[in-house]
Amino acid sequence: MRKSITRALFAATALLIAGAAQAEEINFGIISTESTINLKPKWEPYLAEMSKQTGLEIKPFFATDYAGIIEGMKFGKVHAAWYGNKAGMEAVDRADGEVFAQTVNADGTQGYYGLLVANAANTAINTAEDVLKCDKTLTFGNGDPNSTSGFLVPSVFVFGANKVEPKDCYKAVTNANHESNLMAVANGQVDFATNNTESLTLLEKNDPEAFKKLKVIWKSPLIPSDPLVWRKDLSAETKLKIMNFFMTYGRHGTMEEVKMAREVLTGLGWSPFRPSSNAQLFPIRILEINKSINKITADAALSQADKDAKIADLKKQQAEIEKMMAEAPNT
User: Fold this and answer.
1) Which pLDDT tens digit goes with each residue over 143-165?
2) N vs C: which end of the chain shows fewer Cβ within 10 Å?
3) HEC string of the chain?
4) Which domains does the chain have, with CATH numbers?
5) Is the pLDDT of residue 10 over 60?
6) What pLDDT, in 10s, does the model give residues 53-97?
């Protein structure tokens, strides 16, 4: 009898070990809005709880730039990720990605703003007009080329709208993440830089002295909150597990469990997620088209006939997207 019980215990243990060994591994990509050393402690509690509740083995995947996360998803090294809208669009178009959720700010709002910031002590720079003189006297901290607020939005609303090409207008142009650009402006390493309201709020909390050294000289129209994207080829079962976690975390459970989850989300700057789809990228696609139109319009190497043909094609694409926007919700 004792031997049979022992054998049963061994069998049960073996099944548990086998089940643990067979847990599906999901690499979760995190875009480099800050340094990895700052992002890691914010994300680890969330991903640990995701592993616990889904039964999946969730591993963080960091890269030095946005392209690293997009490429990781393209080649199957990243299975799900947090992106900005521009990077999310690239993941959908080039990396077999699909939007499934959207962040919601800690205050419940569903958007943020792109910014241009300058050093508060610089009395010569107070508005966007002050940085559009194109006399090659200023240094500019641009964002990651796949960043919505750090690159695409200012490219359209500031530079493209005023027929300004940064590399032709400034003494030096660098590309960096939001955190690095804020510190570069605060420390006088660049005259002005792109950024966003989320990162500026974070700096105010983490480094109030650096925050005091900054001033906003331009603010964009509202940008939709960030998308969460998974690879389309994940199994239906895995997608269900991930979706269930994202939609219930911070909403379901005991009072204590919900409170703890909300604290983790607040650390990320968010409240519970909402469901979404590729439709949330429609406004970003239109921005990208406008950026292309501005670039073609300013291209002196193109004949007017070539410009007209290229722009007509882009306008046709824009009309198709606007039609889809009218027929489908943005989420």
Assistant:
1) 999 999 999 999 999 999 898 99
2) N
3) CHHHHHHHHHHHHHHHHHHHHCCCEEEEEECCCCCHHHHHHHHHHHHHHHHHHHCCEEEEEECCCHHHHHHHHHCCCCCEEECCHHHHHHHHHHCCEEEEEEEEECCCCCEEEEEEEEECCCCCCCCHHHHCCCCCCCEEEECCCCCHHHHHHHHHHHHHHHCCCHHHHCCEEEECCHHHHHHHHHCCCCCEEEEEHHHHHHHHHHCHHHHHCEEEEEEEEEEECCEEEEECCCCHHHHHHHHHHHHHCCCCCCHHHHHHHHHHHHHCCEEEEEECCHHHHHHHHHHHHHHHHHHHHCCCCCCHHHHHHHHHHHHHHHHHHHHHHHHCCCC
4) 2-109+225-277 (3.40.190.10), 111-223 (3.40.190.10), 282-327 (1.20.58.90)
5) no
6) 999 999 999 999 999 999 999 999 999 999 999 999 999 999 999
Token pair for 18: 């086998």
Residue 22 corresponds to which tokens in the numbers above? Answer: 């067979």
Model-level pTM?
0.85
> Which phi and psi (to 5°) does residue 97 adopt?
-90, 165
